[in-house]
Amino acid sequence: MPNDNFDQPLCIGPHRLMPGQRQTIDLPVGHLVTHQVLDLTVHVRRGEKPGPRLLVTAAIHGDEINGTEAIRRLLNRRMRHLAGDLILIPVVNLPAFVNRSRYLPDRRDLNRLFPGSKNGSFGARLADLLTKEIANQCTHAIDLHTGAVNRPNLPQIRYSDDVPGAKELAEVFCAPVTIASTVREGSFRDVFGRQGMVQLMYEGGEAGILEPAPVQLAINGVLSVMRHLQMLPQAKRNETRGKTVFCEQTTWQRAPRGGLFLPSVNLGAFVEEGMILGKIGDPLGRQKTPIFATHSGVVIGRLRNGVIDEGDGIFHIGLTRRVGAIAKSIQAAEADLDHGLDHPVFDEDVES
């Protein structure tokens, strides 16, 4: 989707930004119980040449912090040759972020309140502000997430298969695994889906834990998308990245009984139907129950709780039989991460 209005002012709240301008904008959302004004902080970078308008967001769930760190690092890149517009929001759900919580103070999930309402609850007003002032003016979006507490996710991209161009952009992002998934009504993805706009949702790591690998993969993916959209020049050094593996469906492997959870496979492992994924120990010491895989595929998420109940989702499996492709994708991601802290992504002031 082209940005046909690039030469016009980009209006966000009372601010008008022309091409070439950069500004950090604090949009008032409302007042907290302490009378403190709550703002949505938006970083806007307008290039001097026409191009798409990309929105990158994080912490819609306040305890999912890997995306916030990824955006913080992106903000430290100069991007002098930027074409189009880049809008970065490191913390969407600030009240939840401050409380180290997934949810808003009223225990609602912000990612079920879109497109929001200016006369609704606090969360609905935040969703309305983000939708009308920011999202509706963008051509593309990437929303950064993690797994929930005690449910880490293998870095992965989710996209809407019915949106033209979404699969291509998901492949360019190049997470180890890519999944075509349905859009939940009321989610941020739903805002873009209704307009036929391309939006990717990245999942990597676990809530509440800052992890270098998912952070770096998120940054690499965003920069790859920007280069593909011709918002940035191609990388000067030769970057050899692997290919993502597409999983058309996912399923949860559930606990056959309650007890002590003793897994024997980790994230990224390829499992065959019938193989043993671990055991469930009887806490009273009487027996162990093996966990047999009910499907073949790659482990894209798992439970870390030591004590489980019958029926708990313990392994999230992306369905695929492409064993070799999975191994190459995981190895390529690991090789990319092996650069360590001397990799440009960890440089606080690098050129793009």
How is this structure best described in words?
- By secondary structure, the chain is of the alpha/beta class.
- It folds into 2 domains: 235 residues, Aminopeptidase; 71 residues, OB fold (Dihydrolipoamide Acetyltransferase, E2P), CATH 2.40.50.
- Helix content is 21%, strand content 32%.
- It has 7 helices and 19 strands.
- The strands form 4 sheets. A 9-stranded mixed sheet has the order 3-4-6-5-7-10-8-9-11, sandwiched between helices. The chain has a 4-stranded antiparallel sheet with strand order 12-19-17-14.
- A hairpin with a 5-residue loop joins strand 3 and strand 4.
- Helix 1 crosses helix 6 and helix 4 crosses helix 6.
- About 3% of the residues have low confidence.
Question: What attributes characterize this protein structure?
Answer:
352 residues; alpha/beta; Aminopeptidase; OB fold (Dihydrolipoamide Acetyltransferase, E2P); 2 domains; 9-stranded mixed β-sheet; 19 strands; globular
